[in-house]
Amino acid sequence: MEALPARILLDYFLHAVKSGKPDLLVSKVNGAWKPVSANEFGRKTRAFGIGLTTLGLDHDDRIAILSENRPEWPMTDFATLGIGGITVPIYTTYLAPQVEYILRDCSAKVIVVSNERELAKVMEVKGRCPALTHVVLVEGKLPNAEGVVSFESVVKRGEEALKLAPGAWDERVANVNPESHATIIYTSGTTGEPKGAVLSHANFVSNVSTCSTFFDVNPSTVALSFLPLAHVFERMIDYVLFSRAATVSYAESIEKLSENFGEVRPHTFASVPRVYDKIHARIFQNLENQSPTKQKIFRWAVKVGKERLALVEKRRPVPGGLALKYRIADKLVFSKIKARLGGRFQFCMSGGAPLSKEVAEFFWGAGVEVYEGYGLTETSPVLTCNTPKGWKLGSVGKAIAGVQIRIAPDGEVLAKGPNIMRGYWNKPEETKKVFDAEGWFLTGDVGVVDREGFLTITDRKKELIINAYGKNVAPSPIEEALKQIRYVANVVLIGDKRKFLSALIVPNFERLEGWASANNVEFRNPTDLIRNKKVRALFDQAIKLVNGDEPSEKRIKDFALLATDFTIEGGELTPTLKVKRRVVAEKYRDVIDGLYEKAEMMDAAVDKGSDKMM
């Protein structure tokens, strides 16, 4: 499909509004799915934008958004862009100090919050944010506090202003140009202090224009949006949907995703790998409760799907016998998987982190096409992408039009293109660090490009483990191999500046409890399980399987089992579910030190015994 001609992001807003759709946006209100028409979306967005100007907002002022996905999010975004302002999204998972940091760093004048819970965070820090003049509450009871107003009251202020000056909105939009700053998106801070990436209208438009040509998205398309709009990936996807006047349905939450799939019946959605991992794990857990006959049929179907996929991926014809087997497998098994996605599924996208090849093969084999791409907040975000016209499992696709990819001598992925950020807000020195002398953006990721031009990401440069002997070890491939063990839910590899690798492992307790019951292991809680010798022996076997005949520096010598998984609330995960290795290493420092102290004591004992024998 051809891209919608656009200069600035407001062109996508205008296109969506002109569609006149009765259900441009859909969200759940008081237990029922409620549509927002294109006309209402346009009216409220324009009015809210002009309403912001009556509060003193002007060109280049920053307006923060602290809200879950809901219609008021894109209303605020487009309203801000329309008056020449700069949108600053904030994750609702952030605590008050993190919210304060962003508000102070970008000097936001206004923040729009979705409910009383988010309002409480802002009110806690408002006194320490000198630039913040107004807090706009979308729903909930307004407190008796200066500068706190309702979303609807700002809309009404704008409506009154537009009656007096009907052309005010159009005049504002006319002053916005492609090089105008559109947003400041703060990185999630896996490796340090969050930095605000400044992206222009031109940055985003270049990405949307290219990515909108990859898939068949049109006004009849229904998409389910559940990744936070504060994340650049979901935000760009939503702009693509607006450019096609597709229907965007906002999920209630990740927890209610399964229910929402059945209610919305989307054609498409975008997600991060952890969600696909959980769906994959849940399917196999449910399989354990089925009869031996059904389990046998399921495993046969999966095998048939992989056999067919191996040919399809290489663009080879599928023999008639295998095609027949696949149709049977689809009817008996795969159709049920697609039914869980609502029954109208066409394709989905994955980004934000590497997707396990095994998980990708399972979904593709089942007819669930998951197109993986790659990019960063700083690149608006897509640099490479698998598409229906060219895909390779295990890779993140080829460079999109206008983007150049180069691999540095040390393996780092470098990029150039019209989607690369202007720099980090108020951090010129940090900006210099991510561009080389020739203007290439340093992604911080390590990867390889094959002969066909497909990029594969092998790890984060800063996450490479350099052991005590100077050997480099990429942790991700080893962690992914361990996650394929059915009793492993999560894992973090340790070993930087150490003599050997160790691992912190979070068991899949649902499966582990079933195994324990079948093997006469008594337990009352997860702590009992991880302390049990039989359980430890089970994981020891798993690690030996993964170690195989790998060289010594890539073998896990010891491990610790954790009773609780990593969470956003606990600080170990970013809002996009990436593990914060530094936080994990600090939180479990005593456990980690214990693993290496135990090894040193054992080595000392061996040395002492050797001395006695001599």
Which structural traits does this protein have?
alpha/beta, Rossmann fold, GMP Synthetase, Chain A, domain 3, nine-stranded mixed beta sheet, five-stranded parallel beta sheet, 42% helix
Summarize this entry quickly.
The protein has 614 residues and is α/β, with parallel strands linked by helices. The chain contains 21 helices and 26 strands. 45% of the residues are buried.
Describe this structure in words.
A 9-stranded mixed β-sheet has the order 2-1-11-10-12-13-14-15-16, with helices on both faces. Strands 4-3-5-6-7 form a 5-stranded parallel β-sheet, with helices on both faces. It folds into 3 domains: 37-176, Rossmann fold, CATH 3.40.50.980; 271-459, Rossmann fold; 464-613, 2-Layer Sandwich (GMP Synthetase, Chain A, domain 3). Helix content is 42%, strand content 20%. The model has no long low-confidence stretch (mean pLDDT 93). The protein has 21 helices and 26 strands. It is an alpha/beta fold and 614 residues long.
Kindly report the CATH topology of the largest domain.
Answer: Rossmann fold
Report the CATH architecture of the largest domain: 3-Layer(aba) Sandwich
* Alpha plus pi helix count: 21
Structural class: alpha/beta
The overall average pLDDT, rounded, is 93
Percent helix range: 40-55%
Strand order in the largest sheet? 2-1-11-10-12-13-14-15-16
Shape: globular
Distance between the termini: 79 Å
How much is the radius of gyration in Å? Answer: 26 Å
- Outline the low-pLDDT stretches: none
Q: Quick one: how many beta strands?
A: 26
- Quick one: biggest sheet? 9 strands, mixed
CATH class of the largest domain: Alpha Beta
Assembly state (oligomeric): single chain
Residue fraction in strands: 15-25%
- Work out the count of structural domains: 3
CATH superfamily of the largest domain: ANL, N-terminal domain
